[in-house]
Design goal:
Endonuclease I-creI, Helix Hairpins, 13 helices, 3 domains, 9 strands
Length: 396
């Protein structure tokens, strides 16, 4: 890459103002104004003409300076519109990430040959590929693309582990109190992720990946090959584990005995309903392409029906909900072979305990139901794993 081409790129993932020549030029013009004013005051020939030219130069340079300030403000406001909690974003230091991983009590492990599949599923559930606008910005700067994973702060141990597996690439942000971002914005890190997930994606995000590959190839004179949709059996790799880490839910409901009454024609027996749920929006927000085909593939893989529902914002979602014990056995066997890694793995382990209680018919006994309630008291949102982050507030 030539120096001219390299100078067009932002060499880091942070937002910094471009170097401006106008402060220095304005300073020289002010010096010329002062010098010419002194000459004119002492009656030197052409002193007034030189003062007039100097004043025009000062006004011209300051106008261009203010133009760039306004342009930078417009660009910054466009970034803020993409991040509602922009002013609440804080950087998480590498030291904090190291301490979080070091103090983790969980056995985090992803097999090397499954890391790419797991990351592909995680990206398609909780991540996005951010491409810069085509061409140059108002300030003649081309921004680097970014690969971003967004999740709940409880998953920071998972992403700290992933960062360690990837050689320390990327950086972390804490948004508000409950959300984190793992951002890979340097070219070396982006190429690392591309090589890991290429030919392993199954959703429209593969289209975004190919656009990213095209951008990298054009701007950095590389020759990375195109990525193709993975058509392999879901039972042969960890893609579904990564996707579940992002969009899956392990839950259960205990229904109390309800006797017959005036409003209830039949009595309702006490039951324990165990369920595995996956929710996903119908259309990918970035590409606007439908996710129906991949959800249908997952429903077929799990031998269940695919349902739809609408949110309060009138957005259509696809839902897979499994509660039949014989079908849940298939889910248990899959995650025993391709385990989850983050906090969801702890929820899965507790969920399996309840599953085993049901299989052994202990759930119909008072002691069995009390044990299930105890297990549920520490699952999902009730699990207290939220790390204490002490980073100073930073605008990224």
């Amino acid at each position: 890459m030539t120096n001219l081409t390299r100078s067009q790129f932002q060499a880091h993932p942070f937002h910094l103002v471009s170097p401006s020549p106008w402060p220095l030029n304005t300073s020289f013009c002010l010096l010329a104004t002062t010098f010419s004013a002194v000459l004119s005051f002492h009656g030197f020939e052409k002193g007034v003409n030189l003062l007039f030219v100097s004043l025009i130069s000062v006004v011209y340079c300051m106008s261009l300076w203010f133009r760039d300030v306004i342009s930078e403000g417009i660009n910054l406001n466009s970034l803020k519109s993409l991040l509602p909690n922009y002013n609440l974003t804080r950087a998480i230091s590498n030291q904090e990430i190291s301490n979080i991983l070091k103090n983790s009590k969980y056995n985090l492990h992803i097999k090397e040959d499954q890391l790419g599949y797991y990351l592909a599923g995680l990206l398609e559930g909780d991540g996005h590929l951010s491409l810069p606008f085509l061409g140059k910005t108002i300030l003649n700067r081309v921004l680097n693309p970014r690969i971003v994973f967004t999740s709940h702060v409880n998953d920071i141990v998972l992403y700290a582990y992933i960062q360690s597996k990837l050689g320390g690439i990327g950086r972390f942000q804490l948004i508000g109190d409950n959300k984190i971002r793992y951002i890979i914005g340097d070219i070396k890190g982006i190429i690392t992720i591309i090589n890991l997930i290429k030919n392993k994606l199954r959703t429209p995000k593969n289209t975004s990946l190919n656009k990213l590959i095209e951008f990298i190839n054009n701007k950095y004179k590389l020759n990375i090959s195109e990525s193709f949709i993975d058509k392999s059996d879901l039972s042969t790799n960890s893609w579904f584990a990564g996707f579940t880490e992002a969009d899956g839910h392990f839950g259960g409901v205990i229904t109390k005995f309800k006797p017959k009454s005036l409003s209830r024609k039949r009595s309702s027996s006490a039951r324990v309903n165990l369920k595995f749920v996956i929710n996903q929006r119908l259309h990918d927000e970035i590409t606007s392409l439908s996710l129906l085909s991949i959800m249908q593939e997952i429903a077929k893989f799990l031998s269940c029906n695919l349902n739809t529902y609408f949110t309060k914002q009138n957005k259509e979602f696809l839902c897979i909900n499994i509660s039949a014990i014989d079908k849940l056995k298939f889910v248990v066997n899959y995650f025993n072979k391709y385990p989850l890694v983050g906090i969801k793995n702890e929820n899965f382990k507790d969920w399996v305990k309840i599953y085993n209680i049901i299989i052994s018919n202990q759930h119909i006994t008072p002691s069995g139901r009390a044990n299930i309630k105890l297990i549920q008291s520490n699952m999902n949102s009730k699990r207290q794993l939220k790390p204490h982050l002490t980073t100073n507030a930073l605008k990224s």
